[in-house]
Amino acid sequence: MSGWVLSVASLAGAGTCIAGLALSFSQPARAAELGLQGSRLVVSGMLDGTAIKEFTDQLASGTVHTVVFEDSSGGTAEAAGAYADAIRASGVQTEVRGQCMAACAYAFLAGKTHRFGYGGQVNGILLPVAVRPTAAELAVRWRGDETHKTLADFTPSATSATPVSSVSSVSSVASATPAAMAKPIEAGAPASPKDNWQPEHGVLFTASPTLFGRVYNTYYCDGTQGRDFSKCERLPDADPYKLGVLTP
């Protein structure tokens, strides 16, 4: 099966056992696709810039109240900023259904309110970070104007950034950070010295359904774990609502 799988069956020291947590892509990463469902605009796939005009036109119509990101696997820093600007200007709400990685997570935070979707699916967002955040940084990192720093951390200089035109490997793009997706990916090619990103590197927020309601957990993934997210470090006292990543 092509694609990538995020599975956390039981994390050591998590305090809460999460059984059957599995987020998976069974299809190769694809360009963004939009679907209008009443007042909800569903965005899936990579935020690579191909659907930005259609997206901004839909929001400008005034008929969209909620943008739903569904299984969005990353994208470019430029596209992330454009989606975020359109969302912020229109004042719509945002919601995540399934996975929302890197560029998607940045755009998600621009919503007037930003929430995980309801239902039986497991939801997760991966917010890129340059280094392991301290408790003090976590408390403010994704609130208000501070969210702009997340994108700035991963945006190469204007002279070195080149929009991605194609992808050669799902494992390379599935959860790449915005700067990673801002330039073509070559197999085995090292990151530019100007980039401080790593694939699968960031703070991962998850919500999984249980018999007793949804269980929320937060992890720091340093990138060395690859797609085995069960090796990520659980962060204590990092409730996504308290941190402003999710709103009531």
Walk me through the structure:
With about 250 residues, the protein is an alpha/beta fold. It has one domain. It is about 20% helix and about 25% strand. The protein contains six helices and eleven strands. The strands form two sheets. Strands 3, 4, 5, 6, 7, 8, 9, 10 and 11 form a nine-stranded mixed beta sheet that branches. It is globular and about 40 Å long. The termini are far apart.
CA distance, first residue to last residue: 37 Å
H/I helix tally: 6
Largest sheet: 9 strands, mixed
Question: For the residues shown, what is the average pLDDT?
Answer: 74
Poorly predicted tracts of residues: 1-27, 157-196
**Bulk shape:** globular
Number of strands: 11
| Rg computed from alpha carbons, rounded to a whole number of angstroms | 17 Å
For the record, the count of structural domains works out to 1
Structural class: alpha/beta
The percent range for strand residues is 25-35%
Order of helices and strands: EEEEHEHEHEEHHHEEE
Fraction in helix = 10-25%
Give the SSE layout:
Layout: E1 5-8, E2 21-24, E3 33-37, E4 40-44, H1 52-60, E5 66-72, H2 77-90, E6 93-101, H3 103-108, E7 114-116, E8 123-127, H4 135-140, H5 147-153, H6 170-173, E9 201-210, E10 213-222, E11 233-234
Parallel strand pairs: 4-5, 5-6, 6-7, 6-8
Antiparallel strand pairs: 1-2, 3-4, 8-9, 9-10, 10-11
Helix pairs in contact: 1-2
